[in-house]
Structure prediction request, 120 residues.
Amino acid sequence: MQVLKGIKVYVLLLNVDFIPVFGEKDLPEWMEFLFQLVISCVIGVVFVYMMERQNVTGKGSWIISLVLTVPTVFLYFPLSHLAIKDVPGFMYAEAIILWTAGHLLYGVKSTKRKKLQSHS
Prediction:
């Protein structure tokens, strides 16, 4: 979406420049992406744990996915405020919509993947 729209939501997603240890270094994109993947994996493990622990199926998986995904949507505001790099502004509506859509689509995709795995 960043390439198509020119709105730096990908830069915002990977941005870690405000974190003291990371911000002191100019990290390559692959390392920032790896950091994002680690966070994503942790959320995925929590999702699977909650699904297994609660013995959830069907609508319950959607609820758990939303519980884990909705807070990531609101991270847009502190992340855009704290960023040192050039990222979308705090109240840039189109960037907020892209950020929200991306995170919700990720949550939906994760839910569908878990559903498919549970049927095999």
